[in-house]
DNA sequence: AAAAAAT
């Protein structure tokens, strides 16, 4: 099938496709159309950026008869809240002439709000596992008409912590249903899962590793330690002409806060941060500001690594070298999307060389190694105690809105001054209080993470 | 190994 015209779809869907300017289906869209239409179980092995949502949703929506019933008929489960928001947005776009009612539910939002939302009625529910399970248990969401189930990023969903939630949910769904799943990789866990829950599935596999990376230019630097990585990061990001929109991946939440802090000294409100300990409002704001070009640099954990469609990312910088090569593939896949050209940069310490080799083996491609600039300041290795303390800041643009008159810089100045005089205990106390008043969860874990090294 | 996901 070379054109969407060849798909037997309703007029409404054809209009929507035309509006979106799509003419040629991607490989996965062409391949999954017939199996999904026929009602058979489907297993799709596909990297992100291959048009997955469109691939399963088009035939599913097409088969949906108009109804006003409250209980949903299609359920989509994805691993992060941000993906819920994105998938809902996509479905609304191509379902706009088909009177499709789609609702997204996820944690971090008052559950009564979601109960009310669900009671309004929906054809399609998109959800993260935890909130979905809550809604099912409380009977706010009734599963009996769910005949189509889509699970995205299954390999992640089978990680410990996710998998019990997922299997609990599956037990509550009607046995007679069509199962559709997508996974970037086929692991033993995924295979086991398929045998347990799928009935004679059609398996399609597209985008063998290597091929979707044609429009991403990859570079690497070998650097002695973390602080030298930060120095190089600063030296690179100064070039605002080149680094127009840069996503910076770090290995964990603690280093996300730290790298944000270190970059903030140089780039102030050009930089933002996101990770799962931030409140939902903060997370949404960070992404919105980045999408709207209010910030140029976004520091993130792997929360942003998968599936998200961010516009015009010029660079992806990996401050750490992921020890699992798939993570690298997911991360750099945030750039070079939909024909665009992108650049990725990988930082590796001597200890991380082995991880880099694994990545190169998987891709069957050697990442071009760039010379360390002679002007680069090589840091001595600081101990954890010598690391700069993290000052928790609000999202800059949120502050500007909320604090009338007082600018973000004035406020942060004030904060750092008040913090300098006080005893450690008092500072912690202040931080807890501030964290509570603005609902930031990071400092709830302050003591738990104390002394834990980011690298 | 760390991330995310429920309060």
The CATH class designation of the largest domain is Alpha Beta
SS element count, helices: 18
Share of helix among residues? 40-55%
CATH fold name of the largest domain: Rossmann fold
* Average of per-residue pLDDT values: 83
Low-pLDDT residue spans = 398-455
* Structural class label: alpha/beta
Shape: globular
Our Rg estimate from Cα atoms comes to: 23 Å
Overall number of domains: 2
**β content, as a range?**
5-15%
Largest sheet properties? 7 strands, parallel
State the CATH superfamily name of the largest domain.
Answer: P-loop containing nucleotide triphosphate hydrolases
Spatial strand arrangement across the major sheet: 3-4-2-5-6-1-7
Kindly state the number of beta strands: 14
Q: Architecture of the largest domain, CATH level 2?
A: 3-Layer(aba) Sandwich
End-to-end C-alpha gap: 49 Å
Domain Helicase C-terminal: 232-378
Biased composition (Basic residues): 426-436
Family: Belongs to the DEAD box helicase family.
Keywords: ATP-binding, Helicase, Hydrolase, Nucleotide-binding
